[in-house]
Every structure is written in C-alpha cells, then in structure tokens.
Amino acid sequence: MTAPASNAAQKSDVSSPTPGEKPTGLKPVLAVIPESCYERSTARGMFLIGRDFLFYGLALWGLASTNNILFLVPLWLLAGAAVSGLFVMGHDAAHGALFDSKKLNDVMGRITMLPSWHITEQWVYGHNRVHHGFTLREGMDFVWHPLTVEQYNELSPLRRLRHKLEWGPLGSGAYYFREVWLNKMVLFKPPERWAKPMNRDRLLVAGFVLATFVASLAFAGFGGIWMWVKLFVIPFLLFCQAIGWVVYVHHIAPEIRWWSRREWNRFRGQVEGTTVLWGPPGWELFFHWIMVHLPHHVDMRIPCYRLPEAARAIQKAYPDDVVERKISVKDYFRSTRECKLHDFQTGTWSRYPVA
Fold first, then answer.
1. Model-level pTM?
2. Where are the chain's structural domains?
3. Nearest residue to 143 (alpha-carbon basis) of 248, 41, 50, 224
4. For 102-159, how does the pLDDT look when each residue is reduced to its tens digit (9 = 90+)?
5. Strands 348-350 and 341-343
6. What is the distance between the alpha carbons of residues 316 and 314, in angstroms, rounded to a whole number?
7. 256 within 8 A of 323, measured Cβ to Cβ
8. Which of these, 324, 178, 290, lies nearest to 240 by C-alpha position?
9. CA–CA distance, 217 with 191 (Å, rounded to integer)
10. Which residues contact 44 (CB under 8 A, 6 or more apart)?
C-alpha cells in the first residue's frame, strides 16, 4: 500500500505570508499552481510506459544478438536510458501521480521498477515519506546528505577516499548504488508496520532478478552468465549512474543550502532547495520531465508531463526563489568542485580542507 500522494504537501502549513515576507510553508505556492496541472491521462501514461518498454525490448534484443563492442556500447546506453525512463514512470506511479486509479498506479509502479531492481514499497518509504517530507533538512533527508568539515576530519583514510570518489564528477553512480540502492533498499530492515508489503515487493524483485538469470542460462548455457551481465547488470549499473547524477543536480549546487533542523521549513527545502533544469530537444524522451523537479516537490500529485506548466507558474510567482537554468555540464563540474562539505550554520559549501 503506497503512501498518500499528497503526504508532503498536505502536512501542516502556516497561513499566507504578509507582502514582502517569504512563506515558511507550501500553501501560498500551491495556490499559484493551475488546476490543469492535476489533469491525468491514462492513455498518455500508458503510451509513455509502452514506448519505454519498446526501447528496452529493442535494446535487449540487440544485446542478445551481438558481442561486438562497437554495437554493445550504444546498445548499453539505450538500455540504461530505457531503464531510467521506466524508473521515472514507476517513480510517478509510486507517488500516485501517473494515473487516477490507485490500483493501476500500484501495478504499473511495480512493473516499471523491475528493470532497475527497485523494491517499490521501500522506495515509497524512503523517497515519498523521508526525502519529500524533510528535503534538505539536516539529519533527516538521507539523499546526498553532506558532511561537515568536522565530520569529514573524523573519517578514516579509506572513507575519505570513498567520499572523494562519490562526491566527484564520476562518482554519482557509486554513491547511488551504495547509499540508496544497497543500504536503503537491499540491506534496509523494514519497520514492523510496513514489513509485510516491503517483504512482498522484495520477493518480487528477487524473483525478477533470478528469473532473468535462469532464462539467460537456459538460452546460452554457461555463456548465459555473460548474457545476463550484458543484458541486465550493465544496464542497471548505467541506470545507477544516471539516476545518481539526476538526484545530485536536483538538490546540490553552490547556491543551494541545506538547513539545520531548527531553521528548516518546507518552503526552504521544497522551493529554494530544489531545481528546475531544462534539457535540450529530445531530452524528455527518456527523462520524462524529472529535471523540472521543483513543482514535483511542492506537490507530488502533479503528473510528470504537467510539471513544466506548474514550474512556470511557480517561477512567475517566486522569481527570486526558484533555481532555474538549462542543464549544463559546466554547472555540474562547478558543483562537484565546490560542493564537498557543508556548514549548516552559515549555509555555505566548501572544498576539502588542505592536508
């Protein structure tokens, strides 16, 4: 059973601020989002899912048909992109935003998250309840939570090395694999209240992984191990790299601060701390507007294809608070260079201390 889609947005909000005063809650922000942003289309949702599965199927067919590296690399990239697209659809469904039908959201959410090996109910717990409920709050939001200088200095040499890798320009996949997928999903011990649905979904994902492995062995004998790796493992790892980068640029930048528990509020976390990033033509073919992330954090009920309209409305009402720009490799490298450690009292980022 998934969490109510509006869980984060419907928690207590203060009344509207006086003119010239920033809100502390989301009620004034929600008020500027047009009603049309909440209109969902079952046909459009199913079309997007069907298109992603078509790309995924074509990539798997191509990978099964060749071992030529000249073909494998582009096919791996296509497969990783397709897995990412299916995951975004599952992400929307897990929020209850993709379809009006709760049952259809539940079913399609689980199906579309299988290629990314994600346990849906544990994703709902960590992402919907924790990340969305406490975005950029010290000690609460676990996704790309920064260390302070003091915490970094207390790390062993090996853990410092790991931090430098994961917070470097090529480390987003390693971070996501370890911190989110492995620690918060595979090794996570479910709270008793949600243990039954989480364990059920854990078995579903384990069954999918085992079934693809057995099918690969049946198809190619001993060579099926390589078949399974090239069809399912490598696309999964490429997905981790992509989604780790996506989540990083959503909430990490020199101009975005994390907040102490005492100073945090919903407006700071969901509006000031979340980005709107516009991709080049064709970008949404796989990423399905997930980079237009701020309105999704304001209200999880908005389907992905309505996020641009909601973003424009919020940006018009709060032009000084919305972090909006085009996706830029230069900006990403600037963030990975400058955003290593964070001071929660001053809200500033710093590089590593000089040894």
1. 0.92
2. 27-133+169-242+278-328
3. 248
4. 999 999 999 999 999 999 999 999 999 999 999 999 999 999 999 999 999 999 999 9
5. antiparallel
6. 5
7. yes
8. 178
9. 36
10. 305
